[in-house]
Amino acid sequence: MKVALFPFFLYKFDIGDSYLFFLQTYEKILACNVAFPDHLTQSAKDIILEFLQYNPADRLGVRGGTSATAHAWFKDFDTEALLNKTMKPPVVPNVKNSEDLRNFDAPEDGNVDRDFVDRFTPTKEDYEWLEEF
Question: I need a surface site. Which of 41, 60, 93, 124 has the fewest CB within 10 A?
Fold first, then answer.
């Protein structure tokens, strides 16, 4: 993810009426007035706008994945390495086990109760819905 903000996000939270907040968000979407951070490259801005086309038939990738990967933003991306599962990840987190949370920020209050975290071990029944696909 290049930007951790929604493209039509309202940056001020001082709106008391949540209905007004959503109405203004919808107006920004309809106007397609996207504000990009300064650090984004032109190709990153362009690919985001291509995905946000109003008409679904005009959106990037509709004519197949190769139309998306042909975009300039992917010029240095090794699609073959990704498909062959030989691509080296940009970041490899250092973890001891599946319950290691060291790579995540602590809550703002600093209170982390590791025993409170529910332990989930999936069972066969948890995957039954996949059989429909």
Answer: 124
